[in-house]
Specification:
Layout (H helix, E strand, L loop, with lengths): L1 E3 L2 H13 L4 E6 L5 H13 L2 E6 L9 H6 L4 H11 L4 E4 L3 H5 L18 H4 L3 H16 L3 E5 L3 H13 L5 E5 L19 H21 L4 H13 L4 E10 L15 E9 L2 E8 L2
Helix pairs in contact: 7-8, 9-10
Bound molecules: pantoate (PAF).
Pantoate binds next to strand 2 and helix 7.
Length: 283
């Protein structure tokens, strides 16, 4: 399994693959890989000849310096995990900040037709410009046929689809199901920072989401939201940042339930300074 640090090197290899008409899947990650990432890689391997996995903690998408500093970095473990999936069909791109940003570590400004102003956009200013900037650059370097993203970051997935459409980038975006721990907690690299007690307590997030889903069948979004907020106000370990029921397409908060629309509940929660997000389809 080859690890490339420079875009020059990986681009040359990819060019050769393309001349052989091989199809290329791409799984962009920030490392600290877990089962959820491996499921994306497996899906990519099942549908492409070769798969590039990028491992890059992208500074421009962090709106909080401590979060960036504390983000887990576990390259050796990551490579070990990827080897268990395939020895010979995965290429790793693990660049330095300079290789991506060439001395200008700043974001491009994007217009995602308003998707960027909802939920995460309100609490993490600049985050989606950072995500858009790095993913666009990575697409230019890797030029994949298909790229795979987890639905845990559902808003990110929507934004990337929008970027590809608006900038006419020739790649198919594939969204993949959320992977969960046995206790229901959505898999995330940040989970590595949770203490055993926090991890146990964090199973509450998915319990609340599944109950909210049941309630949404008969109750108004307002009532469900009120109930969720009350549950978290009684929780000593977890602090609710937001719970929003939104239209799956526009990501705008629901006004009045419509039978023809698809809705999803989105949640962001803190355990100390560790921020966890999750979501669930409601209908
Ligand atoms: O979801 C992530 O891990 C990151 O936001 C991504 C897509 C790799 C961009 O840095």
């Amino acid at each position: 399994m080859q690890v490339y640090q420079e875009k020059k090197q990986i681009k040359a290899v990819i060019e050769q693959l393309k001349t052989k008409q091989l199809t290329l899947g791409f799984v962009p990650t920030m490392g600290a890989l877990h089962q959820g990432h491996l499921a994306l890689v497996e899906e990519a391997l099942a549908n492409n000849d070769k798969v590039v996995v990028s491992i890059f903690v992208n500074p421009t998408q962090f709106n909080n310096a401590t979060d960036l500093e504390k983000y887990p970095r576990t390259l050796d473990d990551d490579l070990g995990l990827l080897k268990t999936v395939s020895e010979d069909r995965i290429l790793i791109y693990a660049p330095t900040v300079d290789d991506i940003y060439e001395g200008q570590t700043v974001s491009q400004k994007f217009d995602f037709d308003g998707l960027e102003h909802e939920m995460e956009g309100q609490f993490r200013p600049g985050h989606f410009d950072g995500v858009g900037t790095v993913v666009k650059r990575l697409f230019e370097i890797v030029s994949p046929d298909n790229a795979y993203f987890g639905e845990k970051d559902f808003q990110q997935l929507a934004i990337i689809k929008k970027m590809v459409e608006k900038h006419q980038i020739p790649v198919t975006i594939v969204g993949c199901d959320i992977h969960r721990e046995a206790n229901g907690l959505a898999m995330s690299s940040r989970n590595a920072r949770l203490s055993p007690e926090q991890k146990k307590a964090a199973s509450f997030i998915y319990k609340v989401l599944t109950t909210a889903k049941k309630q949404f069948g008969t109750k108004s979004a307002y009532k469900v939201t009120e109930w969720v907020e009350k549950q978290f106000s009684k929780n000593d370990v977890l602090r609710l940042e937001y719970f929003v029921i939104a239209d799956e397409e526009t990501l705008r908060p629901i006004q009045r339930k419509s039978k023809t629309k698809k809705y999803r509940a989105f949640i962001a929660v803190f355990a100390d300074d560790i921020r966890l997000i999750d979501n669930i389809a409601l209908n």
